[in-house]
Amino acid sequence: MLTLVLAFAAATAVSTVTAYTWPSPQLDALEAARFDAHTGVLLAGVQPCDGFGGLPNTGRSNAADWVRTAYHDMATHNIADGTGGLDGSIRFEEERLRPENPGDGFNNTLAFLSATSNRYISIADSLALAAVIAIETCGGPEIPFRGNRIDATSPNSPGVPEPQQDIDSHIGAFARQGFNKEEMIGLVACGHTFGGVEHQTFPQIVPEMHDPKNKQSVQPFDSTFVTFDNNVATEYMSDTTQNPLVVALNDTFNSDKRIFGSDGNVTMKSFADSPSHFSSTCASLIARMIDTVPKGVQLTDVLEPLPIKPADVELQYDASRIKLSGNVRLWNTPEDDSRSVRLLYTDHLGGTGNLSLVFTGTFDSVGTKYTSAWYAFAPITQDNPFARVDIDPKSGIKSMSFIVNGKLEDQGGVGFAVEDRVMRSTSSCRVGGNISRIDVAVRTDASPLRVYVEELRFVFPHAPTIVEHDVPRPSGSQDQPYTIWSLNLAVPVEIGLMMYHIGAEFAGGVKYSTTSRYSAWASGPICADSQ
Ligand code: HEM
Ligand SMILES: *[C@@H]1O[C@H](CO)[C@@H](O)[C@H](O)[C@H]1NC(C)=O
Ligand SMILES: *[C@@H]1O[C@H](CO)[C@@H](O)[C@H](O)[C@H]1NC(C)=O
Ligand SMILES: *[C@@H]1O[C@H](CO)[C@@H](O)[C@H](O)[C@H]1NC(C)=O
Ligand SMILES: *[C@@H]1O[C@H](CO)[C@@H](O)[C@H](O)[C@H]1NC(C)=O
Ligand SMILES: *[C@@H]1O[C@H](CO)[C@@H](O)[C@H](O)[C@H]1NC(C)=O
User: Where is the signal peptide (predicted)?
Assistant: First the structure.
């Protein structure tokens, strides 16, 4: 019996460890968006938690918009046939302009999602993450986050509940989405701890307030409407609530009153009695909400932070040298002046490099639950403004590891592999007009079948798509460790900028894309050799 219990405990412990091996472009990007939120727009949008388009005193908040948008996108789910769910379908105007999706909060949210999405992160993942970051940053619990949601290619069927509908239709709508009555009460309370009802959207519920501190006339669901807390429940239970969906003069619109009371107040009382019960219930309900996806979508494991993570690792070929830049993140550790962090790398000829890294700062994550400490690969000096390390192209670079206070960190012996077969050359430049010359340095002995520029095309409010442009193979001798392949490309003048990755295909159909994203401009200095 005892052994059984121990075996079970061990199995549980192991199954919670879901770290992956770096590099994995999609997981690296999702992990960074989730745990290094200070590098993206979502955290900035909810710091402070009453942030709303930089405008003060609106009565609105991005945090509330994001949580509501995540629910409305998910609420089309039909558990019976697996259609709908959190798939970014709300970005289609046809769906967004339905009567069940009133207000401009969805479009406001999409501006943030477009800025968060990239080739590895869908609009749907960005939306799920926006809700998670809003809740975690504004006083809520840590929410397990998975990635790999797929963006719908067309609108979903309608299915978002509306306040004037009766309780049976709400119970029915949540059942279709996969939530029973108690879970419905929980999810509505967890959502309605943020935000409120806006006059312009629901003039039947909320009057114009003519309040300079509440310019959009929002009547909040609770007295702390930019903070995640159980006041939505305590105020409801103590009959002091001003929740407009409980106290509306026209009872038809009092959906929260009908929903909260639908189990005789048992669930709401449990929330009012215990902030921690409210918090933990919301963590699991919101996780289920964002993980409600169309049939066939395969979500990743719950993302866990890598204890040691290289970030922004970039190689550029610069006048017969390779310049390596990057950072390494030490997870959940405070600043420590006495800590020593070294980068050790191996090259293709069996040599090694070994240098001391420079502390650059600490950042909070998941609200203020965790702190990460960051180190750059080289000191930023006048001579080395981008903190780059020179690498000899003859030997190249194969793999990195780190030594933290004398302890080797190499992913259990695997090392942190670095790809040096293709990279941007700093000789890339603008030829003239909107024509940019993109120079790619290709390791000569890597012999790619194809090299191509992967142009990112952004069309609001969608995730970027990729258009490949083949780079012609250069003629002439290839006796140097690296050969420059060049392509002239027109940069879209109306945007003024083209963002791209570099891709290459090798024997056996093996493809590689730089995780680094580069830019070419339609104006600015032109190539020295074409002046
Ligand atoms: C029967 C179910 C629900 C109904 C009838 C309902 C109804 C409403 C209404 C009428 C508003 C005001 C919108 C506006 O004035 O712009 C609102 C706002 C909001 N809802 Fe719900 N809701 C429901 C469920 C949920 C759920 C499950 C969540 C999230 C888990 C949620 C999150 C929010 C948030 C955060 C706001 C505030 C938006 C803001 O202030 O910008 N709602 N809801
Ligand atoms: C939606 O947002 C985008 C970008 O923020 C803006 O250009 C557009 O005008 C908005 N559309 C509506 C209908 O508000
Ligand atoms: C309450 O709202 C409903 C739905 O809009 C409407 O049919 C009804 O007439 C309203 N009742 C009152 C008393 O205004
Ligand atoms: C729930 O509690 C509120 C606040 O005390 C009360 O007004 C309401 O009548 C109760 N509803 C039910 C169904 O017990
Ligand atoms: C790296 O350099 C440090 C300082 O010069 C040295 O103590 C250490 O042994 C070196 N480590 C390796 C693995 O070369
Ligand atoms: C580049 O400029 C030319 C000439 O002004 C123009 O015809 C062409 O459409 C531009 N290309 C792009 C992609 O904007």
Answer: 1-19
In a domain, 53, yes or no: yes
Is residue 386 very low, low, confident or very high in pLDDT (cuts 50, 70, 90)?
low
User: How many domains does the chain divide into?
Assistant: 3
Instruction: Read off the CATH number of the domain in which 212 is found.
Output: 1.10.520.10
Q: Return the residue whose CA atom lies nearest to atom 5 of ligand 2.
A: 111
Domain of residue 343, CATH code: 2.60.40
CATH number, domain of 522, equals: 2.60.40.10
Nearest partner of 46 among 295, 226, 286, 238, judged by Cα: 226
Q: Hey, which of 231, 241, 258, 265 would you mutate to test ligand 4's pocket, going by the most ligand atoms within 8 Å of its Cβ?
A: 265
Instruction: Check pocket membership of 269 for ligand 4, CB cut-off 6 A.
Output: no
Domain-ending residue, one of 417, 450, 471 = 417
Q: How far is CA 96 from CA 86, 154, 157, 298, in A?
A: 14, 12, 12, 26
> Would you call 452 helix, strand, or coil by DSSP?
strand
In a domain, 296, yes or no: no
On whether both 285 and 257 belong to a single domain, the answer is yes
Model pLDDT for residues 34-93, shown as the tens digit of each residue:
999 999 999 999 999 999 988 889 999 999 999 999 999 999 999 999 999 999 999 999
CA of 191 relative to ligand 1 center, distance in Å: 7
Model pLDDT for residues 469-497, shown as the tens digit of each residue: 999 999 987 889 999 999 999 999 999 99
